[in-house]
Each structure stands twice: as structure tokens, then as C-alpha cells.
Task: inverse folding
């Protein structure tokens, strides 16, 4: 029986992709590295430091910065991003998500967030959803990022549930891999071909409520 739902944030609860793009592009321009939407797609679901490494490699500048200097660059990107976050409000929640959260509360299901974003609490507060979540995993406490399952295993443990009692919802390949590696039922939101490793794939968040209800019925 399903007792909890673990959500990714970006692309599932809200879409901050454009905000991330604006922030990374601003940093890349400061570093004189070409950056466009196509390359930005390769950063989907990737942690901030790993994204920075990919950008530096792409710009052939991977040997130009020390570890400490990279930390400064990552912090600079984050500052750009926090400025972008001021554009967020409750209207930025993806379609159907408010209804899903309301249903989960009515069903007394536990709700967790497993996002690689260190800004997740800020974002949830901007969206006026912070109080809806029982658990928000702090990625700073983790040793590994997705596709490693650590964040999901951590969420299950904090929720006090078994892996078989939760659903993990993701929109990126690395996220789906993390859910699957944790032996949790995975729901992918997006392209069926891209997210083919997910146990269930839906096109948009509008379909999520019916998807969860269907899984619940199947497990009765």
C-alpha cells in the first residue's frame, strides 16, 4: 500500500528551468563561454557543481580554476539564480499539482521533497507550498547526487516508510535512475522515449492525480 509520495522539484512542482538558464547564461557570459538552450539541456537534473564542471569543460576552461575558485563561481551562479527566484509566486506551480497535494493530504499520505536544489525551501515558500511537505531533504547532507539513490533512500528513512510504500516522481533521466536504484516505484513526467526506464510515464503534471489514484487501486 502506498503511504508516501516523494517529489522532485524542478519540472514536477514548478518549472525553474528558464530561471536556471538565465543564471547559468549570465555566469557563462562572464566567463566568456558560449551558452545556449541546447547545452543547457545537458544540465537537467545535474547538481550545481557538476553543472559548473560541464560548462567549464565545454568552454575548454576546466583547468583554469582551483577547487576554491569553482566554489566562488558556483556561489555567483546561485546569487544570479536567487535574483531570478523573485519572479516566482503561487501562479508558478505546474498544472494539477495543487490538486495532487490536496488529495494526498486528504488521504493522509506523507509528502517529501527530494531535490538537488539547495534553494528548495526558498522556492517552496515562494510557491506557498512549504507547509504541505512533511519532509524536505537537504542535499547538503548527502555524499552523492542523482543518479545515486542516496537522496531517495534518505527520504524513505526520514518518512519512516518502506521502499515499497512510496512513489518517486521525476522529470529527468538521472532522477528516474535514482528512484529505480532505490527500488521505489518511479513515475516519469515528460517524454516517454526519454523517460522509458520509469515504471510509469505521464506526459504532463495534469495527469499525475489520476496516475496516483490508478497506482493506489492496483495495489489494493
Result:
Amino acid at each position: 500500500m502506498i503511504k508516501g509520495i516523494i517529489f522532485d522539484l524542478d519540472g514536477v512542482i514548478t518549472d525553474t528551468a528558464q530561471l536556471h538558464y538565465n543564471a547559468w547564461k549570465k555566469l557563462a557570459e562572464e566567463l566568456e563561454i558560449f551558452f545556449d538552450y541546447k547545452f543547457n539541456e545537458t544540465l537537467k537534473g545535474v547538481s550545481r557543481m557538476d553543472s559548473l564542471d560541464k560548462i567549464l569543460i565545454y568552454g575548454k576552461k576546466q583547468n583554469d580554476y582551483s577547487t576554491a575558485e569553482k566554489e566562488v563561481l558556483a556561489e555567483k551562479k546561485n546569487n544570479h539564480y536567487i535574483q531570478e527566484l523573485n519572479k516566482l509566486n503561487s501562479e508558478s506551480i505546474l498544472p494539477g499539482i495543487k490538486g495532487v497535494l490536496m488529495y494526498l493530504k486528504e488521504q493522509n499520505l506523507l509528502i517529501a521533497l527530494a531535490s538537488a536544489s539547495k534553494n528548495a525551501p526558498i522556492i517552496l515558500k515562494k510557491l506557498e507550498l512549504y507547509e504541505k511537505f512533511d519532509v524536505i531533504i537537504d542535499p547538503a547532507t548527502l555524499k552523492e547526487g542523482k543518479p545515486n539513490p542516496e537522496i531517495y533512500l534518505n527520504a524513505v528513512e526520514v518518512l519512516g516508510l518502506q521502499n515499497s510504500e512510496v512513489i518517486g516522481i521525476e522529470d529527468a533521466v538521472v532522477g528516474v535512475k535514482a528512484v529505480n536504484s532505490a527500488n521505489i516505484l518511479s513515475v516519469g513526467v515528460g517524454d516517454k522515449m526519454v523517460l522509458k526506464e520509469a515504471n510509469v510515464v505521464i506526459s504532463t503534471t495534469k495527469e499525475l492525480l489520476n496516475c496516483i489514484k490508478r497506482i493506489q487501486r492496483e495495489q489494493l
